[in-house]
Amino acid sequence: MSNETVGGDDGVPLVESMDEFAISNSHKVRVEGLIHDFELTFGSLPQFVCRAPGRVNLIGEHVDYSDYGVLPMAIDNDFVICCRKVPEQTITIANSKKEKFAKHVVPSWPPSIDSKAHHWSNYFLAGFWGLLEQAGVECDGGVQVLVDGTIPMGAGLSSSSAFVVCAALTALATHNIFFPKAELARICASSEKYVGTEGGGMDQTISIMAQEGVALSINFNPIKTNPVPLPSGCKIVVANSCVESHKQVNAGSQFNKRVVECRSASILLAKSLGLDNYLTFKRLGATQKASGKSLSDMADLVNTHIKKGTFTQDELVEALGLSSRDELITEALSETTKEQTDFNLHDRAYHVFTEAERVSQFMQASNSVEQLGELLDGSQYSLDRMYDCSCEELNTLTAICKKAGALGSRLTGAGWGGCTVSLVRDEDVEHFINTLKNEYYITDKLKAQLDTSLFVSSPGPGARILKL
After folding, report:
1. What are 412's strand-pairing partners?
2. Residues 20-79: pLDDT tens digits?
3. What is the helix, strand, coil percentage profile of the chain, to 5?
């Protein structure tokens, strides 16, 4: 039943031929090898194979959880999970890289995840159990799964979210559940709370809804997508700094801290602007919408109403009109950030409003590759100076990218390591890549990672399920 969906016309495609599932001949060979490995591991063939791609975000970083638009595209690197439903009340999670990731067996119900343990299998359990919980379905029996991922960990290419999405597809397939793609993306974003992160939905949405050959403009609340062709005469080149960003491990002091800094800034702006029920304005986009102000006006209001520098928790309590630190934790902070002592609201909010403006300008400047490059450079400057999520290696790499001929270059993903994305003219790509090889990937350690660290990327398709 080619191109049917799991229960409806707007779901993730369910296909029954390898030609429809595989994105290339090499991918087909890889999937066929995984099916064989599954049979060797479990003694039976899988019933389904699920795929969820990673992504590179062209522009719009750290704005999705403030309800602002982004412009990502799916890449070839992905997670693939072979799965089979079994009568035993256990979930058995095996990994193709068994020498690095040991097999894990847990009771199939009720859900129980220790988000502080940071075990690799938590990502599968988060997506699998999170989907079932949202569907109101208990795990019927158990499942056997074999996981294989080609997205470098901590590279800013959404390895963790692609894993969670792929696990959710496993639940869909084995329990015959249907959700529209946009709702599935929302569920997968929510499910990442089980592994300790508080993202905004970009990674899950592009993994599920990506279209081959185009980037997607994604807006939130509700999720809306529009295809955006890449600028002609240019290529998107991804380069990994090879500094691994431990998004989940350092969530409280890095990623999640940025989320609550933006949340606190939104509440403070709503209070300063005299909005009714100001404590309900948890996202900067909602505060802007209620104020009726433009993005540039909001950036000016940040300068007017939020002091530069940091707030202590006690200062935040006073500034937000709260009664105690406990109320601060309830209204603005979170379990992973409640021990943090200093919060920079001004710079984080200023970045969000100016970055959202850059996304808008990027969409309008598609015929001027020079302007697109300037917007990428402006994004990197803000991410480094205002959002404080770059690092020395990323700054060095983006500088080399510019020297090598990139029209613009910036970090992509959460930052604190990971990859850069660069816009490069077609005729400059060979020189660009050779320059990076000669000036950045010069140590033996970096040379050993070169094959998977530097590549030209074109937009790939989104998630799908193969029924065997």
Report:
1. 419
2. 998 889 999 999 999 999 999 999 999 999 999 999 999 999 999 999 999 999 999 999
3. 45, 20, 35
What is the C-alpha separation between 1 and 97, in angstroms, rounded?
A: 33
Per residue in 413-461, pLDDT (tens digit) is 999 999 999 999 999 999 999 999 999 999 999 999 998 899 999 999 9
Angle, in degrees to the nearest 10, between helices 369-385 and 392-403:
160
Q: What is the DSSP letter of 252?
A: T
- What is the structure's pLDDT at 1? 27
Question: Would you say residue 6 has pLDDT above 80?
Answer: no
Tokens of 25: 């001949």
Mapping DSSP to helix (H, G, I), strand (E, B) and coil, where does residue 424 land? strand
* Confidence band, pLDDT 50/70/90 cuts, at residue 9: low
> What distance lies between CA 119 and its chain's CA centroid?
19
CB–CB of 242/454 below 8 Å? no
C-alpha triplet 186, 187, 193: angle, nearest 5° = 105
Q: Classify residue 465 by its DSSP letter.
A: E
Distance CA 460, CA 213 (A): 6
Type of residue found at 464: R
Beta carbons within 8 Å of 315's beta carbon, 6+ residues apart: none
Mean pLDDT confidence for 273-277: 97
Tell me the pLDDT of the chain averaged across its residues: 93
Q: Name the residue among 81, 125, 77 with its Cα closest to residue 413.
A: 77
What DSSP line would sit under 176-223, residue for residue? Answer: T----HHHHHHHHHHHGGGGT----SHHHHHHHH--TTSEEEEETTTT
How far apart CA 111 and CA 299 sit, in angstroms, is 43
Q: How far, in Å, CA of 108 to CA of 138, rounded?
A: 9
Q: How far, in Å, are 172, 195, 260, 326 from residue 339 at the CA level?
A: 37, 18, 12, 12
Q: What is the DSSP string of 16-51?
A: SSHHHH-SSHHHHHHHHHHHHHHHHHHSS--SEEEE
Give residue 251's pLDDT.
Answer: 59
Global pTM? 0.91
Mean pLDDT on 289-312:
98
Could you give the residue numbers annotated as active site? 203
How long is the chain? 468
- pLDDT tens digits, 383-402: 999 999 999 999 999 999 99
- How many Å from the N-terminal Cα to the C-terminal Cα in the chain? 11
Helix (H), strand (E) at residue 239: strand 234-240
Contact 104, 77 (CB under 8 A): no
Which structure tokens are listed for 459? 């937009």
In this model, does residue 8 exceed pLDDT 60?
Answer: no
* 343 secondary structure, DSSP code: B
In the numeric block, the tokens 């990506």 are attached to 210
Radius of gyration of the chain (CA): 22
